[in-house]
Amino acid sequence: MRAGLLTSGTLHAIVLGWGLFALSAPDSFDVPDVESLPIELVSLAELTQIQKGAEEARKDGPAAPKPTEKPPVQTEAVNLGENERDQSAPQTEEQKAVEVEQAVLPKPSEAPTPATPPRPEPVREVEPEPQPESAPATEVAALPEPPQAVEPDPEPAAVDSAEPLAVEQPEQTRIPDRVPVPAARPEQPPARTAKTPERRETEPKRQAAAAPKAPDSESIEDEVAALLNQEKASGGGAQRSNQQASVGGQQNTGGSELTQSEMDALRAQIQACWSPPAALDASSLKVSVRFKLDQAGMVDGRPSVTASSGNQAADESARRAILICGQRGYKLPTEKYDAWRDVVVNFDPSEMFR
Amino acid sequence: MEQIGLAAAGGEVSLWSLFIEAGFVVKLVMIGLLAASVWSWAIMIDKTLAFGRLRRAFDRFEDTFWSGQSLEELYRSLSDRKPAGMGALFVAAMREWKKSFERGARSPISLQSRIDRAMDVALAREMENIGSRLSYLASVGSAAPFIGLFGTVVGIMTSFQAIAGSESTNLAVVAPGIAEALLATALGLVAAIPAVIGYNKLSSDAGKLGGRMEAFADEFSSILSRQIDERASTTTSRAQAAE
Question: Which segments show compositional bias classed as Polar residues (chain A) (predicted)?
Answer without folding.
Answer: 239-257
